[in-house]
Amino acid sequence: MSPCRTPLLRAEDGAAAVAAVALSVLIAVGVGVVGQAGRTAVLAQRTAAGADLVALAAAEAIGAFAEDPCVRAAGIAAANEVDVASCTIRYTGEGPEALVTVRSRGRAWPLGVRVSSARAGLRPLGIGEDADRLP
Fold first, then answer.
1. Taking a C-beta distance cutoff of 8 angstroms, is the pair 54, 118 a contact?
2. Considering its fold, how many domains does the chain have in total?
3. What is the pLDDT of residues 8-34, one digit of tens each?
4. How confident is the model at residue 7 (pLDDT cuts 50, 70, 90)?
């Protein structure tokens, strides 16, 4: 028997292959987790941007007196791949406001559907921080 091949070392034959497989699985799981986290972040940003655009469209429709602001909001939501969960028009002392909540169409596992809210409104001239700029 050679001094390098003791019974203890023979028991370790194939350990490198097992370690390589384990490392490959660990890397694959890590890549999957990072990819899913990125997908979730992108979906959250798209949902927030969609909510902002929908609220702005509704506010613009209030000022234009063209159509129902919530109908306009639904059209913009469809173009931005979100669904309007709620749309409320309220009138405050500073002017009319559109409050919208949208849901993402995609799912972000394990968090599910993303929801975002936004508010946009119109202020009459002379109200707010721009009042001192008026002639």
1. yes
2. 1
3. 556 667 788 888 999 999 999 999 888
4. low
- pTM given for the model: 0.68
Q: Which helix (H) or strand (E) holds 96?
A: strand 95-104
Alpha-carbon radius of gyration of the chain: 28
Q: Which of 35, 28, 41, 34 is CA-nearest to residue 106? A: 41
Token pair of 108, please?
Answer: 């972000």
Q: Does the residue 2 lie in any domain?
A: no
Contact assessment for residue 89 and residue 72, using Cβ atoms and an 8 Å cutoff: no
Q: What are phi and psi of 102, to 5 degrees?
A: -125, 155
**40 vs 84, 95, 105, 118, 131, CA distance in Å?**
20, 36, 12, 20, 42
Distance between CA 107 and CA 40 in Å, rounded? 8
**What is the extent of the structural domain holding 75?**
7-133
Residue 95 · residue 119 · CB < 8 Å = no
**Residue 1 belongs to some domain of the structure:** no
Single-letter code of the amino acid located at 132 = D
The answer to whether residue 46 is domain-embedded is yes
Contact 61, 110 (CB under 8 A): no
